[in-house]
Design brief:
By secondary structure, this protein is mostly helical. Helix content is about 70%, strand content about 0%. The protein is built from 18 helices and no strands.
Length: about 425
């Protein structure tokens, strides 16, 4: 494998297939574009995880939930994500990608049923969000690994990561956009968004059934739930120096954009606050999706350090939010959301490309689960900031987050652009 391929996963080109690889492909051909049959299920699962975000203000208005209770619902979502990320990889390796993604869809529909029926109950909302968290985590781990593997015969490594990250981003954006519009202007706003998600999820099962399995079923016996994180020499250093300091900001960016940003200007948006929160969420995610195709070019320009640019933009956006905590401008909230979207798009595809490049076939799902676990730490930022408001106001807290992001950018910038994974097999 060439040195450039090992160093810069976003801007590399695939090595020529070996005779053994060519024989395997010839014996077991996979149609071009077959990844598109798995993508709708992953998109639907992501839809089910994020369509709740613009409805937070709706629940506070209609059902009278307090800020503490709304944060509790989010905490249960995270509680579902954590075990989902940790066990989805081993289960996907043991039972296959299709079975795990199908289970994720079923869990997502179950979560939507619970949320639609028991939206007036704190316990029901917590249970529904917990189930949704497990669903999204399983789909993210197994689904993105599956899309990558289905793309290996017709796409270069950068495109494989982009296909997976764009599918997730599209699901997050569509879920927030459609559900937010239904919550603001549709009938039965606490139920209809979930009905739409259930119907969409059911439809994605049809193409899923004809998607080829890429992971052979493991041996009989009880499945192990231990993550396979075996990496080639040198890969862990790259993970610690580049992936680790970048990962929490991946979803930290949208969390600040469409949770903290709209909340700061809720008094200015009045009765349209749900629509405004929806607008900000969609702008953030659409911007993030739009910049992802340019990640390889950015990787070349930065000599394999696109995360530095992503974190600098994140820091700038957070500084704008700190200013907006004083001036309370809706336009400034939108401007910050656009910057957060660019930062999100750069960081999510860069981190996923790094993980896929350093993984072996056996460690792909496990390491992907670890990566997504780290990225979702960023969604705790709004809760953390809210809990610290007794010590300092939002302007000071957001400026502190800006400094931490800048420090992480320095760590990534100081990393070596060339890390050898000498024992990695193509």
């Amino acid at each position: 494998m060439s040195q450039a391929h090992r160093s810069d996963p976003l801007c590399d080109t695939p090595d020529p297939p070996t005779k053994q690889t060519r024989s395997k492909v010839a014996a077991d051909p996979v149609p071009n574009g077959i990844w598109r049959t798995a993508a709708p299920a992953v998109l639907a699962a992501a839809w089910g995880g994020n369509h709740y975000s613009p409805m937070l203000l709706l629940y506070r208005r209609i059902d009278g939930y307090s800020s503490l209770e709304v944060n509790l619902f989010f905490a249960f979502y995270v509680l579902g994500l954590i075990p989902g990320f940790l066990i989805a990889g081993p289960l996907a390796d043991r039972y296959g990608r299709r079975a795990t993604v199908t289970a994720a869809l079923a869990l997502g529909m179950t979560g939507s049923v619970i949320l639609a029926i028991f939206h007036t109950s704190v316990a029901g909302m917590c249970a529904g969000r917990l189930v949704c968290g497990v669903s999204v985590a399983a789909a993210m781990v197994a689904g993105t690994s599956w899309i990558k593997e289905l793309s290996e015969h017709d796409a270069e490594p950068p495109a494989r990561a982009r296909r997976a990250s764009l599918t997730l981003t599209a699901g997050f954006a569509l879920g927030a956009g459609v559900s937010g519009l239904l919550a603001q202007w549709g009938p039965a706003p606490t139920a209809l968004p979930y009905v739409v998600h259930i119907g969409l999820s059911a439809l994605t099962v049809i193409p899923l059934l004809r998607t080829p399995e890429t992971r052979r079923r493991g041996p009989g016996g009880r499945p192990t739930l231990r993550l396979n994180l075996h990496l080639p020499p040198g890969a862990w250093r790259r993970f610690v120096e580049v992936v680790l300091p970048m990962a929490p900001w991946v979803f930290g960016a949208p969390a600040l954009a469409f949770v903290v940003g709209p909340a700061l200007v809720a008094g200015q948006t009045g009765d349209l606050r749900i629509a405004f929160a929806t607008l900000v969420a969609v702008l953030t995610l659409v911007t993030g999706a739009s910049v992802q195709p340019y990640a390889p070019r950015l990787a070349r320009l930065t000599r394999g350090r696109p995360g530095v640019v992503g974190l600098l933009l994140f820091a700038l956006a957070t500084a704008l939010l700190a200013i907006n905590a004083v001036v309370l401008s809706s336009l400034l909230a939108v401007a910050a959301a656009l910057l957060f979207g660019v930062a999100y798009g750069i960081c999510i595809v860069s981190g996923l490309a790094e993980v896929q490049a350093m993984s072996t076939p056996d460690s792909l799902a496990g390491l992907t689960g670890l990566y997504w676990s780290l990225t979702y730490l960023g969604f705790g930022l709004p809760v953390l900031l809210a809990s610290l408001t007794g010590l300092a106001g939002y302007p000071v807290l957001l400026l502190f987050v800006t400094l931490v992001a800048l420090a992480c950018a320095v760590v990534i910038g100081a990393s070596s652009p060339r890390t050898s994974y000498s024992s990695r097999r193509s």
